[in-house]
Amino acid sequence: MSKKIRLGVNIDHVATVREVRKTFEPDPVHAAVIADLAGADQITLHLREDRRHIQDRDLMLIKEVIHSKINLEMAATDEMLSIALSVKPHQVTLVPEKREEVTTEGGLDVAGQKDRIKYVVEKLKKSDIEVNLFIDPDENQVKAAFEVGADAVELHTGEYAHAITREDKENEIERLKEAAKYGKSLGLKIYAGHGLTYKNVGLVARIEEIEELNIGHSIVANAVLKGLTDAVREMKELINGIL
Ligand code: PXP
């Protein structure tokens, strides 16, 4: 029997388009419902400290209307911890966050801040929220994730996604495989994500231990292009009075 991998659809970039105009469309809540109805296993969203895309209201409404899993990506700050404990998503993914970055760069340094991460993990788990740590595929970080009591690790696939030569890609896949195997041997659930596209997802999906992938940019990018033909046609019909 072939294994099934859960797909978490990250809807942040629907909110990015809305925030460019500070208007109400496209609404990430609508996107979450459509992704859910299309078969997404979970809706993933990142509430950033600077609120550059997802807003608090998006998280609250999505938690209300989505009945499959909600995976909240957030920094391990007191502000985010208190939001997570009040909204109670099914899963929290702790990620590093820098204001100046375009997107999450590099995994969370769990090994370098074990006490802080352990504190946040314990608080979330006490509230029955599963905790996933977004880390680089590095043995030291996997071990630290286990030691702080995480339920799962999401292996950062950015280096693989950005690798250009075949050799670099193969090396990155090997790193991911080793980290996945080691994490699983410690009893951690193994997830992966970042920079995955329709072209590069196959090799990652084939890694035996991986149970869940979180993908955003490429799905939203594809949706924009696939929907553009209908959107243009409908506007033309409308302005010509045919509707
Ligand atoms: N997983 C994590 C932890 C992330 O921070 C992100 C980006 O928000 C993703 C997955 C999705 O990455 P992408 O948008 O490149 O598919």
What does this structure look like?
The chain has helices at 12-21, 28-37, 56-65, 78-87, 114-126, 139-147, 158-162, 166-185, 201-205, 217-239; strands at 6-10, 42-46, 69-74, 91-94, 130-135, 152-156, 189-193, 210-215. It has a single domain, classed as Alpha-Beta Barrel (TIM Barrel). Strands 1-2-3-4-5-6-7-8 form an eight-stranded parallel barrel, surrounded by seven helices. Helix 2 runs parallel beside helix 3 (56-65) and helix 6 packs parallel to helix 8 (166-185). Strand 4 (91-94), helix 5 (114-126) and strand 5 form a beta-alpha-beta unit. The model has no long low-confidence stretch (mean pLDDT 96). The chain is of the alpha/beta class and 243 residues long. The site of pyridoxine-5'-phosphate has 19 residues, from strand 8 and helix 10.
